[in-house]
Amino acid sequence: MRRLRPYLWQGDNREYPRFYPHAGITLTINVGHSVMNTPGYILHSTMSDSKEPESNDWSKIEAALRLALHEIERGGVVFVVCDVGVSRSVTFSGMVIAAVEHRRMDYRLADEIRSAIADPLPELWRNASKYMENFV
User: Can you give the pLDDT at residue 87?
Assistant: First the structure.
């Protein structure tokens, strides 16, 4: 579990129960495939790490993104999780940061938020970046 911004944590679903009570998390968005049985409000919006952009339902991902942005605007703290915490949650976190900070979702942002164990799939990052070009 990593704190990427004061308003944003990223990690995998196994870390959630251990950190939730201490991190001030007000919304958890699970972009993985597993179901989490944990306290707090959780939105499950699966993101595919397939190379094909059509493999994702971008309208559902956008709904999750808008919910995260609303939570942050009201002073909340969002935790983005997926099954392993390596690619999908990092990519969705990049989408959140790009929207909040009004910046491009480019590879500088990817470099900024990746770590030794969290490295988004280039195809997924590229597809999300293309989607974010038209996000208002």
Answer: 82
Q: How far apart are CA 45 and CA 29, in angstroms?
A: 7
Q: What is the value of pTM for the model shown? A: 0.86
CA distances from 43 to 17, 34, 65 (A): 16, 12, 10
Identify which of 88, 92, 96, 44 has the alpha carbon closest to the alpha carbon of residue 69.
96
Identify the weakest region by mean pLDDT among 11-15, 16-20, 96-100: 16-20
Q: Residue 45's closest CA among 62, 58, 30, 66?
A: 30
What is the C-alpha separation between 83 and 93, in angstroms, rounded? 14
- The residue whose two tokens read 């919910």 is 67
Q: Where does the pLDDT of residue 6 fall: very low under 50, low under 70, confident under 90, or very high at 90 and above?
A: very high
DSSP per residue, the chain: -EEEETTEEEEETTTHHHHGGGTT--EEEE-SSSPP--SS-EEE------S-GGGS-HHHHHHHHHHHHHHHHTT--EEEEESSSSSHHHHHHHHHHHHHTT----HHHHHHH--SS----HHHHHHHHHHHTT--
